[in-house]
Structure formats: C-alpha cells, structure tokens
Amino acid sequence: xxxxKTEYWATGKRKSAVARVRIASGEGALTVNRKSLTEYFGxxxxxxxxxxxxEMTQTQGQYDVIVNxxxxxxxxxxxxxxxGITRALLQVNPGFRPVLKKAGFITRDSREVERKKYGRHKAxxxxxxxxx
Length: 132
Known about the structure:
Helices cover 33% and strands 23% of the residues. By secondary structure, it is of the alpha+beta class.
C-alpha cells in the first residue's frame, strides 16, 4: 500500500484576494492556479513575497505547495499566499510561531478599499472649489 502524505490546509487573505493553500512534504514545488510560481507571477519582488515564510523558518525546498487564489491584484494575491503558507507552516510546526510573528506574517492585513461616497470624485477627493 502506498504511503500517504500528510497535508496541511490553510486560508490566507489580503484585500479582496483569498488564497487556499495546501502544503505537504516534498521537493519545494510551488504551484499557483495550476501554473508554476515563475509562470504565474512575472515580477521577482512578488515571487520573493511568496517565499518569505520559508526563508524565515529555513524550510526552503522541504514542502510542496499547491495554491488556489482568486480576487485582488498581483500584490494582494502574493500577500494572501504568504499569509496562507504561514498558517499552514504553523500547523506543521507550532515552534515557528515566534519567528513568523516577529516578521509580521501571522497577522492578516485587514486594510480594505474605502467605498466611494456620493458628491465626491473618489472616496475622499472633493470636487474643485470655486470662489466665484
């Protein structure tokens, strides 16, 4: 009978992006929406954000990660994936908590886009004032 891998699931969020992360022991393959990390994210800085939890815990190349992410833009999706990976790593080893907490990866960044108000151009931008 084949040996069953232990998988850990976690959800990461940022702005309107939601990432469902599945982590299992492996060679370090990272798949985002059925594409490789380099194929899905073009910018190196965004790929670096995704890898940060592994660098902080010195676990690069030890886990295979499969991610489904929707909503938001590139940066928000990368931060959501980072949040999900962090939560999954905490399930793998709760001893990682102090390192990840100090880096600020555990806390969900709750900042959302402010709604547009009537009589305004954007959420806060006022129409031009005319004295005469």
